[in-house]
Amino acid sequence: xxxxxxxxxxxxxxxxxxxxxxxxxxxxxxxxxxxxxxxxxxxxxxxxxxxxxxxxxxxxxxxxxxxxxxxxxxxxxxxxxxxxxxxxxxxxxxxxxxxxxxxxxxxxxxxxxxxxxxxxxxxxxxxxxxxxxxxxxxxxxxxxxxxxxxxxxxxxxxxxxxxxxxxxxxxxxxxxxxxxxxxxxxxxxxxxxxxxxxxxxxxxxxxxxxxxxxxxxxxxxxxxxxxxxxxxxxxxxxxxxxxxxxxxxxxxxxxxxxxxxxxxxxxxxxxxxxxxxxxxxxxxxxxxxxxxxxxxxxxxxxxxxxxxxxxxxxxxxxxxxxxxxxxxxxxxxxxxxxxxxxxxxxxxxxxxxxxxxxxxxxxxxxxxxxxxxxxxxxxxxxxxxxxxxxxxxxxxxxxxxxxxxxxxxxxxxxxxxxxxxxxxxxxxxxxxxxxxxxxxxxxxxxxxxxxxxxxxxxxxxxxxxxxxxxxxxxxxxxxxxxxxxxxxxxxxxxxxxxx
Length: 499
What we know:
Blueprint: H1 2-27, E1 35-38, E2 42-43, H2 54-63, E3 74-75, E4 81-84, E5 88-91, E6 98-100, E7 104-107, E8 114-117, E9 121-124, E10 132-136, E11 139-143, E12 146-151, E13 155-159, E14 162-166, E15 173-179, E16 183-187, E17 190-193, E18 205-212, E19 217-222, E20 225-227, E21 231-237, E22 244-251, E23 254-256, E24 274-280, E25 288-295, E26 298-299, E27 309-315, E28 320-326, E29 329-330, E30 339-345, E31 352-357, E32 362-363, E33 388-392, E34 400-403, H3 447-450, H4 467-470, H5 472-492
Parallel strand pairs: 1-4, 2-5, 4-7, 5-8, 6-9, 7-10, 8-11, 9-12, 10-13, 11-14, 12-15, 13-16, 14-17, 15-18, 16-19, 17-20, 18-21, 19-22, 20-23, 21-24, 22-25, 23-26, 24-27, 25-28, 26-29, 27-30, 28-31, 29-32
Antiparallel strand pairs: 1-3, 33-34
């Protein structure tokens, strides 16, 4: 009888094991085939020299085969292939970039370590929005060309990228230009313009542009810096096809030194400089909608002898532009024709602008005062720009504009749920409240605020382990009580050897 019981128990255990194995087989993800190709530094070309060049690798991935024998992949071609860039510089021939027609990752060894000089990508997703493209950890130098152009993709990711854009050819220079792509994510990336201010006008230098004509788009930009360009971020929804919505969230980012030779005072111009430009146009009301949220961004001064606007909204007709701002620092306006906000309205009966404040915004002029009207918003802070340091490496992945001691932006913000770091990766909040802008300053934090908080450290609760910081006497009493209790328990359960 005992033996039979044992057999029954084993049988139950075996059935459970088989059931678990079946579940694992069902739920375990299928193996995804993927190839990796490492390319060489030097002048990029297609030839048979036993050296794998970038252009050859891109052709192989697009073809899903070893079209060019110079590039030998590891793994099998699939739906998530990777090109690994080398240490050193790959020099291209300029032009429109190389086609990439399958989902892929292009990953370097780090900014300033892997460098692409006048070489770019035209990535095109397939039908059904199933293709993902990732560009990570390299520097791109571009003269009058678009470095990365993406169309009809599901996900586009830029991570730890650096773009140095210039123009000597009469053609515009872009960092990232996307069209009808679903999700665009830009993190820890630096877009730098190196342009001469000469001639009668100024050719385009653009950081990130998201354009949707027929499909909804979501853009996220975090901890990124745009400097010396005509425009940092451009959001375009023209509603020429199906009704579309473009949603954008921009956090902990810096737009500074925007530059153009033309004034926007007489209206919108393609030569107008802006930290963020929003352009909409539609054939019918609500056919094109742009919703964008800006949180803890710094809009620095325009370039010397130049005109710029922190945020420009252009509604060409029958479209809606909705902006929500929180803890932004607007220091572009106040000199010449430069201003922090400019709105241009075209024709149409369905034109809609909505600007909403969640508080904590600080502005150097009064161009936003009508709409950013919470009690914690500040306008007409004419000294704001003078309390910004030079764009420099203050730690983190991108250069930032530090807040100098005495800045009106220090402790001027409102706390944002889930936002625990600033543009440089430092802790936020350090003082009595968040600082406005992308940079969280140490001025006015901890000891600087303790006198106004009865000796307590701001942001630290007065219970639990935090007593160690905020109430030394309570900490001593609690420690003594804990030690006494531990001694008593050790006596009761014979654990003296651990005491």
